[in-house]
Amino acid sequence: MDERTDQQVDQLPEDLDITGMVGPYVFPDNSRRRVPGFIYLGLAVATIVATIAAGDSPMANGGLIVGAVGLALVGVYHLQSGWHLKVDEADALVAAVKAAGFPVGHASAQMAWRGLRSRPTWRILVYSNESPPERRGLVFIDGIDATVVACHTEARPDDDTGEWGTDPTVGSAR
Question: Distance (Å, rounded) from C-alpha 133 to C-alpha 125?
């Protein structure tokens, strides 16, 4: 409650409030996926053991075994997709600058996952250091070994406005 107005106001929880953050942000490691994987496998084994121990009971039938097998498959998937992220965004940015082939001014990093095994991959958007930038590029860096997965760079596209894809008539009086 806000004491000034006696009304309910929306507030962020403390752990999501960025104003209280101290130090650099650390991206969570994908290996955390292994914890639920082990839990799922444990529950699957416990379900199979309990179903077998119950024998011919109306409370335990073959459906529990099918469910336990499905839960075990999900657990195995979590275990194999729980990669340890060895490359942070700073290392990925260095690799992207090398791959881009031009001096980089501004850049932006985003974590993505590729493939069936959800291998972590940094997507780095880079711009050359001129004002305005003359070149731009998109570089994909593997989050495990910092290899360049893909790299696309291009010169600034020519347009009549002098800006990248902005329309000078938008937002102005005619």
Answer: 13
Flag whether 124 is in a domain: yes
Residue 127, beta-bridge partner list: 136
| Residue-wise pLDDT tens digits, 57-103 | 888 888 899 999 999 999 999 999 888 889 988 899 999 999 998 99
Q: Is 102 left (phi over 0), alpha (psi -120 to 50) or beta?
A: beta
Both structure tokens of 3: 């004491």
98 and 135 inside one domain: yes
CATH of the domain at 112: 3.10.450.40
Amino acid at 3: E
Burial of 68 (0-12, 13-18, 19+ CB in 10 A): buried
Structure tokens at 132: 């305005």
User: Length of the chain in residues, anyone?
Assistant: 174
Cβ atoms of 141 and 161 closer than 8 Å: no
* Domain with 114 in it: 89-155
Asked, as a colleague might, if the bond just before 36 is cis with ω within 30 of 0, I would say no
Number of domains in the chain: 2
Cα torsion 96, 100, 103, 105: sign: negative
Q: Is 40 helix (H, G, I), strand (E, B) or coil?
A: helix
What is the dihedral angle through the alpha carbons of 109, 111, 113, 119, rounded to the nearest 10 degrees?
90
